[in-house]
User: Fold this.
Amino acid sequence: MLKKLEKFSLPELEEKVLEFWKINKIFEKSLAKNAKGKKFVFYEGPPSANARPGIHHVIARVFKDIIPRFKSMQGLNVVGRRGGWDTHGLPIEVQTEKSLGFNNKQDIERYGVAEFNRKCKELVWLYKDEWEKLTERIGFWLDLENPYVTYENSYIESVWNILKRVWDDKLLYQGHKVVPWCPRCGTGLSSHELAQGYKEVTDISVYIKFKLKPGQKIGNFTTDDKTHILSWTTTPWTLPANVALAVGKDIEYRKVTITRGEHDGEVYILTTTRIADTFRRSGVFDLGERLDGNEEINGFMDIGTAIKGKDLIGLEYEPLFDVPALKSKTSYKIYDAKFVTTTDGTGVVHTAVMYGEDDYNLGKEIGLPQHHTVDEQGKFTKDVKGFEGMVVKSKDEKTESETTQKVIDHLKSKNNFLRTEPYKHEYPFCWRCSTPLIYYARDSWFIAMSKLRPKLQKANKNINWVPENIRDGRFGEWIKEVKDWAISRERYWGTPLPIWHCKKCRHFRCIGSLEELEDGGKKKEKNRYIIVRHGAAENNLKNICDSDALKSVFNLTLKGRVQVEALAKKLKKEKIDILFSSDFPRTKETAEILKSALGLGKINLDARLREINVGDFNGQPDENYGNFCKDYAEKFVKRPPQGENLTDLRSRLFDFVNEKEKEFSGKTFLIVSHEYTIWMLASILNGWGNREAIEEKNKRGGDFIANAGMEICEFKDVPRNESGETDLHRPYLDNVKIACDRCGGDMERIKEVLDVWFDSGAMPFAQSHYPFNKEMDYPADYISEGMDQTRGWFYTLLAIGVLMGKNSPYKNVICLGLILDKNGQKMSKSKGNIVDPWEMMAKHGVDAIRWYFYTVNPPGESKKFDEAEITKTSRQIFSLLYNSFVFLETYRSKNSKIQMTNSKLTNILDKWILSRLNETIESVTRKLNHYGISEAGRAIEDFVGDLSRWYIRRSRRRFSAVTKGFGGQAEALDFEAASATLRHVLTETSKLMAPFAPFFSEALYLSLNNELGIKNEGHNSKFKIPKSVHLADWPKADKKAINKKLTVSMDEIRTIASSVLAKRAEIGIKVRQPLASLNIKDVKLKSQKELLDILKDEVNVKEIKFDANLKVEFELDTKITHELKEEGTLRELVRTIQDLRQDAKLTPQDTVELFINGAEEIKFIVSKYGELLKKEVKAERVEIGRPPRFDAEIETRIDEMPVWIGIKK
Assistant:
């Protein structure tokens, strides 16, 4: 794949690799290879396909991919590499509402819940193809053919089972609590959903003067009609619901008397520590900075003596609004409350029982009225005269502002207004529709997670978090303060809560399975369905589609009649009440034989039992209809021209079954029909969904039922949609009534659906249909998602695992930071900084993007997406490796049988690079085993730099010497060893890189082990070569090859070389100009002859000396003799000729004729070093002068001397 490329392009290369994987089924083979190995469990967190995938999904998916690839190469059986789809919840509903132009739940109710949910189900898959293409393109290996889907019946049934377990443990309860409420979506949200929707806003806060009733004693002071207690709120819309004030009994308050202006004589009570801030910023009073004791401040106020909060308790005040429903003996009084603080406000908290958790709890404790002044749509009710219908919180600032201003105007009219103040703070918004939430008291269903706090914390301690600080930090703090989980949503498209309520005795019951649901229903004697397929017919013999009953001419064959007669004998023992048949000739003939043999009454022909209508395929070969759809799943939705799909077929059959179930009970029906018809009948009667029906068909292989075959079923009394498919969603489940196990009355299902995060958190159980299928892979060894999932999927997985009595649901988790633009800004359409992943992949290749994400910084840190950095990454790793391969492929030994054997290596460079390779294998393996992906990637990057910039550069002459004709047998053996070493190193490097860069590593591996003459899956001497790098074993470090002393010594040599080259550059002497000597202070290297030879060659000196008395680390002899000058000019000449050969697209093996003309000194050097020059540039002859014909030429200057060079092949 890498051989003789005109241009190295990662995107083009990746497309070739994708094709190779598909054709050779490499992913499937990688799964099969370790099928009997030790399990390593991976969980794929389900994405939603109702929106396009973005660059942030790419990072999440490539981090998910790398560890399973690594573990698979280590020989582990990686299970759980199965796709999944999150298909329920508000995101889908909101998008569906927008597509239909709906504004609220009332629009949905008018439209119809069944039709609305059908639209939701369609919208779920809007971008499924794009998600699957992206998953494939980025090399994230998942089984997308058999994903788990959260809306499927088996998944829902498992979720029900979990809820039943929670119910039985008495942890699921209904409570009247204040919940975060979205007025637009009409539902509450859970605490982890709430955490995902905070935004910084600036609200108008209001200081309110509550007028105390006259004649009440506060110490030595008696209230009059000018005495007020001050409160403060950031939610003015809650003021009509005010029913009490709260103070702290131990907090110090003061009486402030205004002595001038329009408020002259008014008395305000507030906490001492807030007086300055309350009045200095007011814009009403111009106060100075001093607020000491009773001193008058600038003539505006007197501050009275201290008052304890306990002295204010029990005081009564005048209501702000006239709301009769809020009046009671306990209303409009001051109470003590522990939640009161003096951090902000006035130390007096306005209490609206239905709109705050603290308010609600206080109201419940002292018996305050519980009455809403705002409805579920976030509008004032008719209780608030003059305000009814006004929106209290809105995305539209103007709408909300109008409401706030009207409240303020009302306060001003009653002299209850002091001032307003802008207040910047974090406020919760709906995480999907972006509507500002309100805190709203109502009935909801909760799971008592607070009771499980110790178990959650214990389970968390067993998890390896990357970054480590998440365990006790972001995640640990979250579960330390965990609240009860509000799991109910008053919506439509979601897993229905399986809770039934008896209105008669008020008993609740939780259902945990379809079987339990059916058992709980009203009992009636069941009908039995004996369904038989017609005997072999002429159309079966000819393999012809025959689906038009009115035109059908195909009868039973003799074989078919014999089959039916044999079937009749089996049916003798059955007591059959009614015989039904399709009206095709072959089914009628079958029915006649059975009627006669069994002594049955008339045959009831029913068109609903006909063969599936194949439309235009009628009369054509069976295979034409079979090829019309790619699979059975498509047959449920795709109709042939003028025909019907499986859903249509099931609908007419459900009509038949439904009719018989209503008309009869305790009967046995004998039904004669066709294969597909019987398949769909069986799916109806057995309560199969589409997936179960397909699985059963595939399990049986070939036909679902053979000619004259028999199927016996009973009708499962489960919720079904219009087509007869079992459907556990609203409104079908809403229609199911069960008998109350206490009073025998009718129980009806509550209308709520489940928090969609419960769906995703249940995936370890529900994806396997546990416990109905006993096999389940738990816990996961590895998961990964974005940092936001600490309060999303990571939490719900842990919560449900603990609820099910299991240990931690995952052992290792990598949390990923945000993706920002290159300037550190959050990406958004409005800013125009969204990155299109497809554009990036087409431009740079996904391996470059993968490598960038892995190595730019640790996973948990935010990543500033910068194209320039991706280009740099590609050069640092992929270009270096590609050039290394090209070098090997260009200069290598053609002896494909040569093998690298450590014991036979004599060259110190080979020993060093193998030591570095094995050190890197050891390091990368250790780091990946501890989920240190970034560190492992950078270790590979460092090694590739060493390989290219040192080993290959310092080994060039070893490769070119034989080609150029230098040396003898020793040099030839060294050449073979260098070739074998480099090929081995590149092969092992391709394996190390395979989890990180699966495409390039595959191309490199195949190019090394196929295009270099080694047969796939065959034997090269003693080694078996797998067909793909992803089928190869993970490399194991050869500890004997690791020479730490050599590594350190080589590092020292390279450090010296770097310093010397920097010095040469500083004094302006080119590297190609030889120098006489280098004097080094460090005498420890004196014995390292081989390393010193490398250093000597690297810095281009004739001799290396040592002098421990040097005042500097090294000293260069910069005197250039005439001979040294000649040699330097010769080297420049050789370099120029080699560049010319390359421009002429010559290979190293090509010989040329060389012609040189120029200054006399150039001619002298050519004459003197002619033989050496011929070998260096692979020339048959060297001639001074300019011939009439040549293939390539260059005219330039060397050491300021003019020179012309020409070559001819």
About this structure: Residues 379 and 390 are 5 Å apart (CA to CA). Residues 283-299, 1012-1022 have pLDDT under 50 and may be disordered. The radius of gyration is 41 Å.
